[in-house]
């Protein structure tokens, strides 16, 4: 389980909470790889994170439709998250392990906080509705 995860981040659904935990775990793995300056492993971890984010975005949208909430604003937030991630990824990959400690730490210290903030703020509307369902609720 991710060191960043707390039960306060739960949105009231096992599938979404699990996706959040997995993404936070990947972010922590990336932080370690940045510190080790392992460019090849970092590239693979970035691919894993991007794929996980895209899959998570699809799952959340499916849930939003199933519980009948407007997902327009949340979807825009997902697009911003992905864009910000891709910008940071491109900067670090272009430096091929030659980033400063500050640049490397930026990924964990800012982007991870941004993702946690997304869970807290952008997930509020979904959380209110999901907490009225069973924790194991799955959309059709």
Provide keyphrases for this structure.
140 residues; mainly alpha; Four Helix Bundle (Hemerythrin (Met), subunit A); 5 helices; 74% helix; 0% strand
Explain what you see:
Helix content is 74%, strand content 0%. It has a single domain (12-130), classed as Four Helix Bundle (Hemerythrin (Met), subunit A). It is an all-alpha fold and 140 residues long. It contains five helices and no strands. Helix 1 (14-36) packs antiparallel against helix 2, helix 1 runs antiparallel to helix 4 (101-122) and helix 3 runs antiparallel to helix 4 (101-122). The radius of gyration is 16 Å and the shape is elongated.
How are the SSEs placed, and which strands pair?
Elements (H helix, E strand, L loop, with lengths): L13 H23 L2 H28 L5 H24 L5 H22 L1 H7 L10
Helix pairs in contact: 1-2, 1-4, 2-3, 3-4
List SSEs in N-to-C order: HHHHH
Secondary-structure arrangement, i.e. CATH architecture:
Up-down Bundle
Strand content bin? under 5%
Structural class: mainly alpha
What is shown here, in short?
The protein has 140 residues and is mostly helical. It has helices at residues 14-36, 39-66, 72-95, 101-122, 124-130.
